[in-house]
UniProtKB/TrEMBL annotation:
This is Globin-sensor domain-containing protein. It comes from Smittium mucronatum. One of its GO terms (molecular function) is heme binding. Residues 1-173 form the Globin-sensor domain. It comes from the Eukaryota. InterPro entries: Globin-sensor_dom (IPR044398), Globin/Proto (IPR012292). The lineage of its organism: Eukaryota, Fungi, Fungi incertae sedis, Zoopagomycota, Kickxellomycotina.
Amino acid sequence: MEYLTNFIEFSADDHRSIKNASDLLQPLLSTITDVVYDKLFEYDITKASFTVEQSGFDGPIKSDLNEAKVTDPVIVYRKTMLKKYLHKILNDELGPKFTKYLYWVGEIHSNTRYKTSSSDVEFINLNALTGFVTAALMNIINDSTQASWTPEERNKTLIAFSKFFWIQNDTFLMYHAILQDKVAELSRAPPKAESSPNTISSYGPTAANALLGFGIGAFLTMAISKLFK
């Protein structure tokens, strides 16, 4: 995460831009989560994720895909978790605790030996979901009439959210594409006292190429966005 964060230049200013969007987005979190889960139920491949055991949920789960409804208790629970996630993004401070939380989000959607459940969400679906949520938030920001934002501030906020979700998506990739024991070790390591040279060589060539791809993609997104300032 450190390498990607530095590469795409996610800064304290970016985080402040995200937090400054809280007044706009916080009242809409319930609506956003409803829209997200309506979208997930449009496709059997994503809907099927809710017919199996869910981490943290002990209630009934319908195993028959045709019987699953967006109003089922498990979906109400998942909506609550998504709302909490978005709330943390908008309100939490940067630091080791928040970084650990982002790693946890990546881990809980994979299948590692450190989890208490066997639930696993394929990366292709996580990638699609991240893109949908990112677009939804950015559309709200772009279409808002928040008078206190200058065009420059609005643009900075859009870029900040784009960078953030690239970083979050990186944790999904790590837990799905990199040796799980190595990732678990990294995510549980104490924060470094001093900065050290950034390297991804320890992840291996396949993971290195994938991580670099995320970084370049986010960097190009930022560059293109700046053209429309």
